[in-house]
Automatic annotation (TrEMBL):
This is Cytochrome p450. Pathway: Secondary metabolite biosynthesis. It comes from Moniliophthora roreri (Frosty pod rot fungus). PANTHER family: CYTOCHROME P450 MONOOXYGENASE ALNH-RELATED, P450, PUTATIVE (EUROFUNG)-RELATED-RELATED. One of its GO terms (cellular component) is membrane. It is a single-pass membrane protein. It holds the Pfam family p450.
Length: 311
């Protein structure tokens, strides 16, 4: 059975796009769809995560829907996800063809959105190597300690702005560990850092259900002038220039003999050990911010709110 995987926002909510279903094995409960289009009309114009969570509450941890005849399995519990994605990972280790987020906006370069091809394997090796426990302990923990002290000081000085302080602290941790570019307190972020934040926000907005209609109607990619193409091309141009600029600056700092402990610096110091090329490397580093900023910021904000209401 060939299949592919698309991660949604919550850690326990994933979507499996199945190209051929075994009838006896996949008789999951499902929301009723319409002829030809299936359940597409229920997704258009809605925020996808709350809708999928609603379906898993109503129909169980494994839900079956169709998008223009394409079978899709929604996995809404950690137990079901572990069974499918760990125990049976060889069957379900792929990804759907995300035409908007992967091809149109990122040229097939961003690891979280591409198929399990040779590029994916090269970049995954890079990421897993740099995120191994020893590397995290050696390089991430000192940066985290500094940023947490700054965060606490800022919140004490101005409690009403605590949300923005948390977001800044998370962004600074990522930018420092990846590029040696801490965000200074009281200083406006450089334009390149603003671009990284913008790329993250625009990507999250673009993949909301109802906006990525080309994924449901793939023939649209062959039609000139379809509305999604121009902003997608502009996004890809900005992403390419931003991620390359950050890597080029890290290279310049290293060549100038400045202190450099970031992931970018380590990659540049030992190019002979890298299977991925220079372009794959700077796109891979871009995925660190996209993967970590929103998740960590929102989680920290929730924790802060809960602690403040503990009484």
């Amino acid at each position: 059975m060939s299949s592919s995987l698309h991660q949604a926002t919550p850690p326990n909510l994933v979507i499996l796009q199945i190209s051929r279903l075994q009838q006896a094995a996949w008789r999951a409960r499902n929301p009723k769809g319409l002829p030809i289009i299936g359940n597409v009309h229920q997704l258009l114009g809605k925020s996808i995560v709350p809708l999928l969570e609603k379906w898993t509450r109503e129909y169980g941890p494994v839900v079956h829907i169709k998008l223009f005849g394409l079978p899709v399995i929604i996995v809404g519990s950690s137990a079901a996800g572990k069974e499918l994605l760990e125990t049976r990972h060889q069957k379900y280790s792929g990804r759907p063809n995300l035409l908007l987020a992967s091809e149109a906006m990122q040229g097939g370069m961003m690891m979280p959105f591409i198929h399990a091809n040779e590029r994916f394997r090269r970049v995954r090796k890079l990421v897993t190597t740099e995120m191994r426990p020893a590397a995290v302990t050696q390089y991430f923990n000192p940066v985290q300690s500094v940023e947490i002290h700054r965060l606490v000081h800022s919140i004490i000085e101005s409690p009403k702005d605590w949300k923005s302080y948390i977001a800044r602290a998370i962004a600074s941790i990522i930018m420092t560990t990846v590029y040696d570019r801490p965000l200074r307190t009281g200083q406006e972020a450089d334009q390149v850092v603003k671009n990284v934040v913008r790329l993250n926000d625009e990507l999250v907005e673009a993949i909301e259900a109802g906006k990525n209609y080309v994924d449901f109607l793939p023939f649209l990619r062959y039609i000139p002038g379809v509305p999604y193409k121009k902003p997608a091309a502009e996004y890809q141009k900005l992403a390419e220039s931003t991620y390359k600029q950050l890597m080029d600056e890290a290279k310049a700092n290293l060549e100038a003999g400045r202190p450099a402990n970031s992931i970018a610096a380590r990659l540049l110091q030992k190019p002979e050990e890298q299977e991925s090329d220079y372009r794959e490397q700077y796109w891979a580093l871009g995925s660190f911010y996209l993967a970590g900023s929103d998740t960590q910021s929102v989680s920290s904000q929730i924790l802060m709110y809960v602690r403040s209401r503990s009484e």
